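Weekly structure sync, notes
Attendees: PL (lead), two postdocs, one rotation student
Agenda item 3: pending single-chain targets
PL asked that the sequence for the first pending target be pasted directly into the notes so everyone works from the same version. It is reproduced below exactly as submitted, 767 residues in total.
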Amino acid sequence: MDPEPDEEIAALVGDLVQAARVPAKRRPFSVKPTVERLTTLAYEHGLRPDVLRTLVVDILAAPGVLLDQASLGSLIRNLYPSAAVPDDVVLAIVGCLGQGQMKPPLPVQALLLRWFVLVYHVLAPPALAVLSRSYAVLFNLLDTAGIRPQLCHVLVLITRRKHVRPFRIQATLGLSRQIGHDPHLIGLLRVFKNYYPEVIVGEATRGRASPFKHPDPQWRTHLDEICLTRQHNRQDGEGRNKGANGVNLLDDAPYNGFRVRHEVSGRGRAAGKNRLPTVHTIHAQEESITLEEIDSAASLVAHFETIELPSQLVAVLADPLLQKLLLLRPADEAFKRVDNWLEACVSSTASGDSSREELMDLLEVVHDYITSTKTFPPVFHRFFGEILAHWNGRDKKSLILESLAFVPIASFTETYKATYELLEARLLNNEVTSQLDLLSFYTLVLRQWRITMMAGTDDEAGTKAAVSIKALIEHVNGLVLALIQNSVGTSPSAPNNGGVSTIALMGVLDFYEEVTAVLALRRDDVLASVQELIPPPAAVYTLHFHQSAAVVSRLYAVLANYKRGLEAAMSRRPGRSAAAALALAGTNNSNAQPLSMPLADHERARVNLFNGYLMDVCNCLWRSRAFSSTDTNALGCRVDGAVVGRLAGYVQTLLDRELPLAAAFSLSHSPTLCLQAISYLRQMEDEAMEAASNAGSTTPPLQRRHAGPVTQAALLRLSNSGGLRITWQAYRSGLLVHLEKQHLGGIASLMYNTMKNLMNARASQGG
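Predicted structure, written out during the meeting:
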């Protein structure tokens, strides 16, 4: 059996550690195959922190190593860490730099410094601290020509204002004049000049300077893939993003949201992000604190009031730390400058000076900004208007929909005409999936508006928001009906039709669950129009007769929450108590409890419609009166009487025994719930058999088992013939509990909120 990759890598590194101390002629084996195998495995799987530590400390940076330079170079070029790089690895490399008989060759040192640049984004915070404290050591090595280019690149990455001192500026200027204005030194001087422009004159930094591009973007991309794969594997195995050495790569990465993104160009970033300037503070005073010096949450809090804003404020679109600062310490001028920059981008595209592809490239940046700050500045309206005007409905669809969901609450009519109407025209293409995408978008919009209402304190604004939410729900009701018609009404022979239908109906339920969440806010401005938020009959009855137990359970939970919302609305009316709002309406022999309340005519029609939903569901599931229209408020599921008669005759021709159509949709006989019902009865029978066996009884406690489906008469016959003894009421009550345990609690929720006898039973039990 082949060893695991990590085990094989550890064994190969152990072999190399031993071989590195032995001259080539005295080694018992050739090093070349070992190096080739190790580099292959490192490229495919990466190196654990403990293996990386051994390889660097004991071989690559160790004094007196006897491996050839080609092998050392091959190892460094394939030194892919699979987790955050620990500090002792960085310390070992810093310690091996410089000239000396026991130092690695200068080409090897140059490769190790280049490796620092490659893995800078996955250095653990302690490793970054080591680099920062080693600044003086690294700076003093600038006169070593063999490693100067790579050394300057590392210094550019780690330079902060605290590192820039007059003596270092003077030393760099002198070295630059001495060796003939080396472009790498000029690039470093330009970084120094950003911190102290009054010290460094312009002539000193003139000339060609190194751009300090990322040395190998493909290497960086492959490293990210290795780290991501390792994180997923650890999540599957341990449920956490912990590495073998306990380092959390996600939390300990340099860019954890409390550090400025010191981006290095050419790292495979998105095209839109490449157009953005990075955070940089020019003309900073020595006593001021720049954002680049912040490296933790504690540091941000300590210097919060004195942090100087960077020169290029448009970097807020991509830098998390600057976003946090401007959210906590808003600056109108800052946001105005961002607006002006985006306005210039949109205007440039509209005039033809830049392509719309470039505008789409900025979309990812704008999306990240909107979703992280939960804000939608006014300038974004024109930005997305320009994008939607030429959008094909497919490219970067998720980014567009997620971003537009954060449009602030305003008049729905105005927002629809300004944004949503154009979005619908571009998105809808007569396919169910496009309608489902639009419904998911409106669900997200409603969620964001609900969150805004929860956080708001302005009553007048809340009232306007309630009007907008009402208009949004009424608009989406039409979309829901179209989606249900297209998804359920497609040909049964169409491939995956059942799956599309179920997914579409789940999307419908997602939306109405969000509506009930709005009702749960118990805001008077929302409850005042709650009758108008009731879902349309076609949606309710289509979901009610669906074959998925998950769908019907979620529907009943939604109806139960609507009922609570209606009750809360009526109880808040002047002169109306909560008890009165729960008064029983209908005939005296009905134990189903709809809503009863004094209403205006249009309100009464809506409430009667909702009461019809409740009565029809109870008649189907609990009372064995499916399609009955004789009870008060019952609508017979809106099925014509002639159709009901023909269905009843059809059912009789299909079944060997008599089963009236009225009972065919009860908990025991429903095609959707019959399996759960009979499973519950058989579970009770198994428990009775097991209890008798544990008690040592030799006589079987059950002479026979129920074959199903369960009816009241069948349970009586079963009890009289030696079967399980259980009453019809106890069976159905237990079945509701069983369904709750099977994560189908919506059924029980509606029954306990609608059936009077169940409500009284639960109240007497203290439930």
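Discussion points:
- Strands lie at 289-290, 307-308.
- The first helix runs from residue 5 to 19.
Action: rotation student to compare against the earlier draft before next sync.
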